[in-house]
Amino acid sequence: MRLLLADDEAPARARLRGLLDEIGGCEIVGEAANGREALELADRLRPDVVLLDIRMPGIDGLEAAAHLTGYEHPPAVIFTTAYGDYALEAFEAHAVDYLLKPIRRQRLEEALAKARRLGRARLDAVREALPGAAARTHICARARGQMVLIPVKDIVYFRADHKYVTVRHLHGEVLIEEPLKDLAEEFVGRFLRIHRNTLIAVPFLTGLARTPEGLHVVGLRGVEERPEVSRRHLFALKERLKRYG
Known about the structure:
By secondary structure, the protein is α/β, with parallel strands linked by helices. Helices cover 33% and strands 31% of the residues.
Protein backbone atom coordinates (compact mmCIF):
# COMPACT_ATOMS: atom_id res chain seq x y z
CA MET A 1 0.00 0.00 0.00
CA ARG A 2 1.45 3.36 -1.08
CA LEU A 3 0.79 6.21 1.33
CA LEU A 4 1.19 9.98 1.34
CA LEU A 5 1.40 11.78 4.71
CA ALA A 6 0.11 15.35 4.95
CA ASP A 7 0.43 17.28 8.21
CA ASP A 8 1.90 20.71 8.91
CA GLU A 9 3.56 19.42 12.10
CA ALA A 10 6.77 17.43 11.57
CA PRO A 11 6.40 15.49 14.88
CA ALA A 12 2.94 14.30 13.78
CA ARG A 13 4.38 13.01 10.50
CA ALA A 14 7.22 11.32 12.40
CA ARG A 15 4.72 9.56 14.68
CA LEU A 16 2.79 8.30 11.66
CA ARG A 17 6.00 7.03 10.06
CA GLY A 18 6.84 5.12 13.24
CA LEU A 19 3.40 3.54 13.49
CA LEU A 20 3.43 2.56 9.82
CA ASP A 21 6.85 0.95 10.23
CA GLU A 22 5.44 -1.14 13.07
CA ILE A 23 2.39 -2.17 11.03
CA GLY A 24 4.43 -3.07 7.94
CA GLY A 25 3.26 -3.58 4.37
CA CYS A 26 3.18 0.18 3.72
CA GLU A 27 5.38 2.36 1.53
CA ILE A 28 5.47 6.08 2.34
CA VAL A 29 5.90 7.68 -1.07
CA GLY A 30 5.91 11.29 0.11
CA GLU A 31 5.25 13.82 2.86
CA ALA A 32 3.53 17.20 2.65
CA ALA A 33 3.39 20.10 5.11
CA ASN A 34 0.26 21.73 3.68
CA GLY A 35 -2.69 21.11 1.40
CA ARG A 36 -1.08 22.48 -1.74
CA GLU A 37 1.94 20.19 -1.35
CA ALA A 38 -0.39 17.25 -0.70
CA LEU A 39 -2.27 17.88 -3.94
CA GLU A 40 0.88 18.30 -5.99
CA LEU A 41 2.45 15.14 -4.58
CA ALA A 42 -0.74 13.11 -4.93
CA ASP A 43 -1.02 14.18 -8.57
CA ARG A 44 2.57 13.15 -9.29
CA LEU A 45 3.00 10.08 -7.06
CA ARG A 46 -0.52 8.59 -7.20
CA PRO A 47 -0.64 7.08 -3.70
CA ASP A 48 -3.27 4.54 -2.73
CA VAL A 49 -4.06 6.38 0.50
CA VAL A 50 -3.54 9.92 1.79
CA LEU A 51 -3.36 10.47 5.55
CA LEU A 52 -4.59 14.05 5.63
CA ASP A 53 -4.51 16.48 8.55
CA ILE A 54 -7.58 18.71 8.60
CA ARG A 55 -6.13 21.89 10.09
CA MET A 56 -3.31 23.08 7.85
CA PRO A 57 -2.37 26.57 6.65
CA GLY A 58 -3.59 27.75 3.26
CA ILE A 59 -5.50 24.86 1.71
CA ASP A 60 -6.79 22.81 4.65
CA GLY A 61 -7.41 19.08 4.68
CA LEU A 62 -11.12 19.28 3.85
CA GLU A 63 -10.48 21.47 0.82
CA ALA A 64 -7.56 19.30 -0.30
CA ALA A 65 -9.80 16.22 -0.07
CA ALA A 66 -12.44 17.98 -2.19
CA HIS A 67 -9.85 18.52 -4.91
CA LEU A 68 -8.60 14.93 -4.62
CA THR A 69 -12.08 13.58 -5.37
CA GLY A 70 -11.81 15.16 -8.82
CA TYR A 71 -8.59 13.36 -9.77
CA GLU A 72 -8.77 10.75 -12.51
CA HIS A 73 -7.47 8.15 -10.04
CA PRO A 74 -8.41 9.55 -6.63
CA PRO A 75 -6.68 8.04 -3.60
CA ALA A 76 -8.51 6.91 -0.50
CA VAL A 77 -8.45 9.56 2.22
CA ILE A 78 -8.09 9.13 5.97
CA PHE A 79 -8.37 12.36 7.94
CA THR A 80 -6.26 12.97 11.02
CA THR A 81 -7.83 15.44 13.40
CA ALA A 82 -7.92 16.95 16.86
CA TYR A 83 -11.54 18.05 16.38
CA GLY A 84 -14.01 17.46 19.21
CA ASP A 85 -16.97 15.11 19.46
CA TYR A 86 -19.37 17.26 17.44
CA ALA A 87 -17.15 17.18 14.36
CA LEU A 88 -16.42 13.48 14.73
CA GLU A 89 -20.14 12.77 14.58
CA ALA A 90 -20.19 14.41 11.15
CA PHE A 91 -17.42 12.13 9.89
CA GLU A 92 -19.10 9.03 11.28
CA ALA A 93 -22.54 9.95 9.95
CA HIS A 94 -21.19 10.12 6.40
CA ALA A 95 -18.86 7.11 6.61
CA VAL A 96 -15.65 9.13 6.33
CA ASP A 97 -12.53 7.59 7.84
CA TYR A 98 -10.72 9.63 10.47
CA LEU A 99 -8.07 9.21 13.15
CA LEU A 100 -8.30 11.21 16.35
CA LYS A 101 -4.97 12.59 17.58
CA PRO A 102 -2.94 11.29 19.33
CA ILE A 103 -3.16 8.44 16.84
CA ARG A 104 -3.04 4.86 18.12
CA ARG A 105 -1.63 1.94 16.17
CA GLN A 106 -4.79 -0.17 16.37
CA ARG A 107 -6.98 2.64 15.02
CA LEU A 108 -4.51 3.31 12.21
CA GLU A 109 -4.55 -0.36 11.23
CA GLU A 110 -8.36 -0.37 11.23
CA ALA A 111 -8.56 2.78 9.15
CA LEU A 112 -6.08 1.46 6.58
CA ALA A 113 -8.04 -1.79 6.33
CA LYS A 114 -11.25 0.06 5.40
CA ALA A 115 -9.84 3.13 3.66
CA ARG A 116 -12.56 4.55 1.40
CA ARG A 117 -12.40 6.69 -1.68
CA LEU A 118 -14.45 9.78 -0.97
CA GLY A 119 -17.29 10.88 -3.18
CA ARG A 120 -17.71 14.65 -3.52
CA ALA A 121 -21.29 14.54 -2.21
CA ARG A 122 -20.22 12.70 0.94
CA LEU A 123 -17.41 15.16 1.59
CA ASP A 124 -19.64 18.19 0.97
CA ALA A 125 -22.11 16.83 3.53
CA VAL A 126 -19.33 16.63 6.11
CA ARG A 127 -18.13 20.15 5.34
CA GLU A 128 -21.65 21.52 5.80
CA ALA A 129 -22.00 19.75 9.15
CA LEU A 130 -18.75 21.11 10.57
CA PRO A 131 -18.70 24.45 12.39
CA GLY A 132 -16.91 27.16 10.46
CA ALA A 133 -16.75 25.21 7.19
CA ALA A 134 -15.86 27.55 4.34
CA ALA A 135 -15.89 27.61 0.55
CA ARG A 136 -12.75 26.52 -1.26
CA THR A 137 -9.89 28.99 -1.51
CA HIS A 138 -8.68 27.49 -4.81
CA ILE A 139 -10.10 25.89 -7.93
CA CYS A 140 -8.27 22.79 -9.14
CA ALA A 141 -7.90 22.20 -12.89
CA ARG A 142 -5.65 20.49 -15.41
CA ALA A 143 -3.72 22.37 -18.07
CA ARG A 144 -1.47 20.61 -20.59
CA GLY A 145 -1.60 17.49 -18.43
CA GLN A 146 -0.51 19.28 -15.28
CA MET A 147 -2.53 20.08 -12.16
CA VAL A 148 -2.99 23.80 -11.51
CA LEU A 149 -4.52 25.54 -8.49
CA ILE A 150 -6.21 28.89 -9.17
CA PRO A 151 -6.78 31.14 -6.12
CA VAL A 152 -10.47 32.06 -5.97
CA LYS A 153 -9.46 35.66 -5.23
CA ASP A 154 -7.85 35.83 -8.70
CA ILE A 155 -10.88 34.52 -10.61
CA VAL A 156 -12.71 37.17 -12.66
CA TYR A 157 -15.55 35.07 -14.02
CA PHE A 158 -16.90 31.58 -14.67
CA ARG A 159 -18.54 30.90 -18.03
CA ALA A 160 -20.32 27.64 -18.88
CA ASP A 161 -20.25 26.08 -22.33
CA HIS A 162 -21.86 22.63 -22.61
CA LYS A 163 -20.04 20.27 -20.20
CA TYR A 164 -17.14 22.62 -19.45
CA VAL A 165 -16.79 25.84 -17.47
CA THR A 166 -14.12 28.39 -18.40
CA VAL A 167 -12.39 29.85 -15.36
CA ARG A 168 -11.04 33.28 -16.39
CA HIS A 169 -8.47 34.54 -13.93
CA LEU A 170 -5.88 37.29 -13.81
CA HIS A 171 -3.20 35.17 -15.46
CA GLY A 172 -5.17 33.30 -18.11
CA GLU A 173 -7.91 30.70 -18.20
CA VAL A 174 -8.50 27.00 -17.59
CA LEU A 175 -11.38 24.58 -18.12
CA ILE A 176 -13.14 22.62 -15.38
CA GLU A 177 -16.10 20.23 -15.36
CA GLU A 178 -18.01 21.55 -12.35
CA PRO A 179 -21.65 22.67 -12.77
CA LEU A 180 -22.09 26.44 -12.77
CA LYS A 181 -25.02 26.01 -10.37
CA ASP A 182 -22.75 24.37 -7.78
CA LEU A 183 -20.16 27.11 -8.13
CA ALA A 184 -22.84 29.78 -7.66
CA GLU A 185 -24.04 28.11 -4.46
CA GLU A 186 -20.56 27.55 -3.04
CA PHE A 187 -19.32 31.09 -3.68
CA VAL A 188 -22.53 33.00 -3.04
CA GLY A 189 -21.75 36.61 -2.21
CA ARG A 190 -18.46 36.72 -4.10
CA PHE A 191 -19.84 35.76 -7.52
CA LEU A 192 -22.97 37.16 -9.13
CA ARG A 193 -24.93 35.53 -11.95
CA ILE A 194 -25.39 37.94 -14.88
CA HIS A 195 -26.44 35.35 -17.46
CA ARG A 196 -27.57 31.74 -17.40
CA ASN A 197 -24.02 30.79 -18.42
CA THR A 198 -21.93 33.42 -16.58
CA LEU A 199 -20.92 34.26 -13.01
CA ILE A 200 -18.77 37.33 -12.41
CA ALA A 201 -16.63 38.13 -9.37
CA VAL A 202 -18.16 41.13 -7.63
CA PRO A 203 -14.77 42.57 -6.52
CA PHE A 204 -13.74 42.84 -10.20
CA LEU A 205 -16.93 44.55 -11.37
CA THR A 206 -16.24 48.10 -12.65
CA GLY A 207 -19.55 49.06 -14.24
CA LEU A 208 -22.43 48.43 -16.60
CA ALA A 209 -22.62 49.67 -20.20
CA ARG A 210 -24.89 49.39 -23.24
CA THR A 211 -23.55 48.52 -26.68
CA PRO A 212 -24.70 50.19 -29.93
CA GLU A 213 -26.67 46.97 -30.57
CA GLY A 214 -28.61 47.50 -27.35
CA LEU A 215 -26.95 44.75 -25.31
CA HIS A 216 -25.94 45.29 -21.70
CA VAL A 217 -22.39 44.30 -20.80
CA VAL A 218 -20.20 44.57 -17.70
CA GLY A 219 -16.70 45.90 -17.31
CA LEU A 220 -14.33 43.75 -15.29
CA ARG A 221 -11.01 44.85 -13.87
CA GLY A 222 -8.02 43.00 -15.28
CA VAL A 223 -9.61 41.62 -18.46
CA GLU A 224 -10.67 43.07 -21.81
CA GLU A 225 -13.77 40.91 -22.21
CA ARG A 226 -17.12 42.50 -21.43
CA PRO A 227 -19.56 39.66 -20.64
CA GLU A 228 -23.18 40.12 -21.66
CA VAL A 229 -25.91 40.62 -19.06
CA SER A 230 -29.23 38.94 -19.78
CA ARG A 231 -32.48 40.84 -19.28
CA ARG A 232 -33.46 38.36 -16.60
CA HIS A 233 -30.44 39.30 -14.43
CA LEU A 234 -30.18 42.99 -15.32
CA PHE A 235 -32.32 44.30 -12.45
CA ALA A 236 -30.36 42.40 -9.78
CA LEU A 237 -27.10 43.68 -11.22
CA LYS A 238 -28.32 47.28 -11.20
CA GLU A 239 -29.42 46.90 -7.60
CA ARG A 240 -26.02 45.53 -6.68
CA LEU A 241 -24.30 48.48 -8.38
CA LYS A 242 -26.56 50.95 -6.54
CA ARG A 243 -25.81 49.27 -3.23
CA TYR A 244 -22.06 49.25 -3.60
CA GLY A 245 -21.59 52.26 -5.88
